[in-house]
Write a structure and sequence with these properties.
By secondary structure, this protein is of the alpha/beta class. The chain is built from eight helices and 13 strands. The chain has helices at 19-26, 30-35, 51-66, 91-99, 115-129, 221-246, 264-274, 294-304; strands spanning 3-11, 15-18, 41-44, 75-78, 105-108, 135-142, 164-172, 178-186, 194-196, 216-218, 256-259, 313-320, 324-331. A five-stranded mixed β-sheet has the order 1-7-6-4-5, with helices on both faces.
Length: 333
């Protein structure tokens, strides 16, 4: 049984923050923001760009591409950010209602910035296990940049965070853009290293002064950096190679890498280690890191630029803070 990508869509707010503006707010030179952080500009949300609204826009774009009746959607899975319109709230049901998916039920899930690949695996599993499920929509909106304080230098690796939405429509028995395999790896020792320390049940009720603390902090920056240095890239390569192996493919058979945005030197190192060229991926310097949406943005840009062609093996890869490393392999066309 095959599960293929029937359509995809993205959405970006009109607002933009340039490298110069990031530099002004952070005190980091603009050349460093551009060359090291790898950000020329990034989308930032306006008042109307709630997390669910961005997912709704992206979902409508995916449905338009697929050319299906919205009533055909059986399940809507919200795999966007936890930072949603309201606390303790299901964004997926809002999406389903807004797009008119009258026959769909919905639930929310997240693996942080590994959520798109996790959503693909969950959607495929649902369709395999339930004979009546044929079409699943993955909807995502992301604006975790709201939780960034540019004066906190320990979280400078998150200054690339942007905002936007992405969506995928997956269909059982669809023999195009076929999901071949997925792979995941988790390490819970990172779970409380980088967090927003207020606003959750760990510190409740909130105090008046907590409003100024609603931003990410790193509790042990040196320990955090050490663990990242030791584990990040090995786990990236593990999930990529494991997913390829499950698809009976090798590293040499990667045609396009849809990878999350991170600093330019690491991006180039990954390409070198995998034996890939710049023409086999898209560096998202005009978007920054839009969370779990990065892989869909990369695919969209890759198709537009002619980098992704029918028959290509496309590898999606990302990592979710906490940490979850995730990869998926799609045979395009």
């Amino acid at each position: 049984m095959t599960v293929g990508i029937l359509g995809y869509g993205t959405y970006f707010p009109e607002g933009r923050m340039t490298a110069a503006e990031i530099a002004e707010r952070s005190g980091i030179p603009e050349t460093v923001i551009r060359e090291k952080f790898g950000v020329t500009a990034k989308p930032i949300p306006g008042p109307e760009d709630t997390t669910s609204a961005m997912g709704i826009h992206a979902s409508r774009a995916a449905i338009e591409m697929a050319g299906i009746d919205v009533a055909e959607i059986d399940v809507v899975i919200w795999n966007g950010g936890q930072h949603k319109d309201y606390p303790n709230w299901l964004a997926g049901l809002k999406v389903a209602d807004a797009i008119g998916a009258v026959n769909a039920w919905s639930f929310d899930m997240e693996a942080m910035c590994g959520s798109m690949m996790a959503g693909m695996e969950v959607a495929r599993s649902l369709m395999v296990a339930n004979e009546g499920y044929r079409t699943v929509l993955l909807a995502s909106g992301y604006r975790n940049a709201d939780m960034i304080d540019y004066s906190v230098s320990d979280t400078s690796f998150m200054f690339d965070l942007g905002a936007g939405g992405a969506a995928l429509l997956l269909r059982k028995g669809y023999d195009h853009n076929v999901l071949l395999s997925t792979s995941f790896k988790g390490d819970g020792s990172f779970s409380e290293d980088c967090v927003v320390e207020v606003g959750g049940s760990g510190k409740w009720p909130m105090a008046p002064e907590d409003a100024d603390r609603m931003h990410f902090v790193v509790r042990d920056i040196e320990g955090f950096k050490k663990k990242l240095g030791e584990r990040t890239l090995p786990n990236f390569y593990y999930v990529i190679r494991d997913a390829l192996g499950k698809a009976d493919l090798t590293q040499e058979q990667i045609d396009y890498l849809a990878i999350l945005h991170f600093k330019r030197s690491t991006h180039e190192l990954v390409l070198s280690d995998l034996g890939l060229t710049a023409d086999q991926t898209t560096y998202l310097d005009a978007y920054g890191h839009v969370g779990q949406n990065d892989q869909i943005i990369s695919i969209q840009e890759g198709v537009r630029a002619g980098k992704i062609k029918p028959g290509d093996n496309v590898v999606l890869v990302g990592a979710g803070l906490g940490f979850v490393w995730a990869a998926a392999v799609v045979r395009w066309g």
